[in-house]
Input
Amino acid sequence: MAETKKVKILFVEDENLLRSLFSDALSLDTEFQYEIASVASLTAGLKAVELNKPDVVILDLILPLEDGEAIPSSERGITFIEKIKGDPSLKDIPIIVFSNLDDPETKKRAFDLGAESYLVKSESLPQTFLATIKNTLKKSLNWF
Amino acid sequence: MENDFLRIARHQLKGPVTLIKGYLSFWQSDDYQKFSPEKQKELINKALASAEKLNVLINDAFLALSLERKENLKINPEPIQLKELVEAIYNENFKTSYENKGLYFRTETEENPPVINSDKYYLTIVLRKLLDNAEKYTKSGGITVSLQKENKYAIIGIKDTGIGLTAEEKPLLFTKFFRGSLSLNIAKEITDALSGEIFVESAGQNQGAKFIIKIPLTI
Output
């Protein structure tokens, strides 16, 4: 896989502008070629992971409410991590949380459940975002 | 309630800040040179649009707080020709964006359009919020503003052909951060302060919505 240097990224994020900014940042990288897919909800995200087996998932924690749901909003992202990391066939897919939530409890929960990395949106420049993705990928795929 | 308000407002204000910082960082690191000239222009335009979004969010947050506390709300009545006001607001703030989306804009009025004595500054904010809201939730078709007199009130109707409202959404419509925005809450608070009423009619999802504002002919 290292030879092709192609990576599949799944964005689970409902803010279009933010997604497009960080996709632009990825397009600057000369080392890897990124194939970016994006979904805006928890259900669509889970389905996309199963179908496409991305190399890395970028996950917003606060996702739109879905039919019949009443749980607090950041729980949807946490549920996503729980489900992916609890599934033996999917648990090795690294998850980078990308959220506006910056409280230690949320971060701890995300890491405890198995998230590989945690970026706070307002503190992340496109360059740090790109570097985190590359480091996470290299670690998870043992490319280097 | 205020803690909730501050928490959500803080969260919302960060959105455009993240974008502005992100776009500018391309220039700081010279990465912008790797983009085509067209793409560079697109990125700068997006940064500017994010700054404008931030501007609106800041104004709305402070206005909503001050309306809640009834601070600095000085009503200065003056004669207002409603049809002229609505058309001026549309031409100055919405014409371009409505036309870009392919939406029509119509006014319907009696032979003698209502003239009222009210606060132009605040009434303008209400109308701008409602025209903005109508545009945001209308993909095709358009918006019709009707103006009429009924007893001691002017009735302003703003009818769109947009996504409408579900029965569950209706009671929440004028609460703070409905669908993430303060606009309708601000419109309601100001209408109350102008001794008026605001309500909505919608047959349901994808059935459009009609906002109705009743403003006293003389405050």
